[in-house]
Amino acid sequence: MARSLATIDSGASPASTQHAALAVFAAMLLAFAWVNSPAVEIYDLIHHTPLSLQVGAVGLSKPLVDWINEGLMVFFFFAIGLEIKREVLVGDLASPRKIALPGIGALGGMLVPAAVYLLFNAGNPETEHGWAVPVATDIVLALAVLSVLGTRIPPTLKVFLMALAVFDDFGTLVIIALFYTEGLSLVSLALAVLGLVGLIGLNRLRVTHMTPYVLIGIFVWVAVLESGVHATIAGVLVAWTIPLSVKGRPMLSIVETGMRPWVAYGVVPVFAFFNSGIHLAGMSSATLIGPASLGAGFGLFIGKPLGVFGAAALAVASGLGKLPPAITWLHLLGASLLAGVGFTISLFVAALAFDHPAALQGVTLSVIIASTLSAFTGLGVLSLAAQRPQPAESEERLRP
User: What dihedral angle (degrees, nearest 10) is formed by the CA atoms of 262, 263, 266, 272?
Assistant: First the structure.
């Protein structure tokens, strides 16, 4: 446990996490204000500007927003892939006893929100496919809220929330690959596999220079993009080929540390800017209380904490898991509420699920409202938990 805490704490301080969250909120507010100002046409022009990339006979042409969602976000999922690999090999997911509680909690936190969404949308062909919108947690924003309480919150609660988010991220990636993929090209998939084999070869040869990884990684991204599988999956696949260490040099940690500020202060805010522009002029009450908006909102705000807390409680009651040291049930409830902060990946899945602008705007606003409510209620519950005495049992006696 100590090694895992050190790994996490060395990666991002509470201050840097808060600054990253502020950058996301600033980008979101800028987009919202711009879209609802007289200069909205300029935003729309930037948003839909066509951008082409041509190399020989191979060319790609997409609106700028698609380059952001399918290109720039690859780096976001690459960072997620690095984090998942680190946690699985040397972190809190390396021990079955440590992963039971967050793993089972994450499973409940994915199934229940999806079920809540389908309560509003089952049988509706226009909105049913958006069931995955409320299943994921935005760990950066959730940790930013958690860091407000500082040392009044047990460090093990941060570890639990981090591990929960890792399972969430992995599950969401599987969902994107399985349910948001159309028109598979076997030739392109074969080329992507060939590129991954090359990357694995670099890993096995203990190559430390990143240039060949970058070049082959770009090839894999293009192949996956052309295959019909969503291109961001390439980021996770490439991340898993980065060596953990070479001759004592922590390669994965070096890459992850170098990527973190670029993703936190660049990729995610830019994504937020391009995906948070909600035209209030075109918004109607019918859209905001439509089945997709209600399903996404209640899925995050109600379904997410209900699923996480309920599944974790069942895990503890059955003996499959146990509460980490210094964490009370009130702490667990607060963390479960913070799991409803689903901003970044929820908006990403919404962009995949909905083509109609009005429906997408309604779901986007619903995600923002539900994430905000989850943040404030989670913070309130954790503030209450911080005022109560900690469990008398020592960490040493409870340590697995």
Answer: 180
Any residues with CB less than 8 A from the CB of 359 and at least 6 apart, and which? Answer: 126, 127, 287, 290, 292
CB-CB neighbours of 46 under 10 Å: 14
**Residue where the block lists tokens 């941060």:** 158
Nearest Cα neighbor of 239 from 250, 230, 252, 254 is: 252
Among 218, 226, 221, 217, residue whose Cα is nearest residue 188: 226
pTM attached to this predicted model = 0.75
Contact predicate 302/116, CB 8 Å: yes
Task: Count CA atoms within 13 Å of residue 344 on its CB side.
Answer: 28
d(CA 363, CA 351): 10
The amino acid occupying position 163 is A
Residues counted in the chain? 400
The predicted-structure confidence for 160-218, as pLDDT tens digits, reads as follows: 888 888 788 788 888 888 888 776 788 888 999 999 999 999 999 988 888 999 999 99
* CB burial of residue 49 (10 Å; 0-12, 13-18, 19+): exposed
pLDDT digit string, tens, across residues 284-327:
666 678 899 999 999 999 999 999 999 999 999 998 888 888 88
Adjacent-strand bridge partners of 55: 58
Nearest to 378 by CA among 208, 179, 131, 147: 147
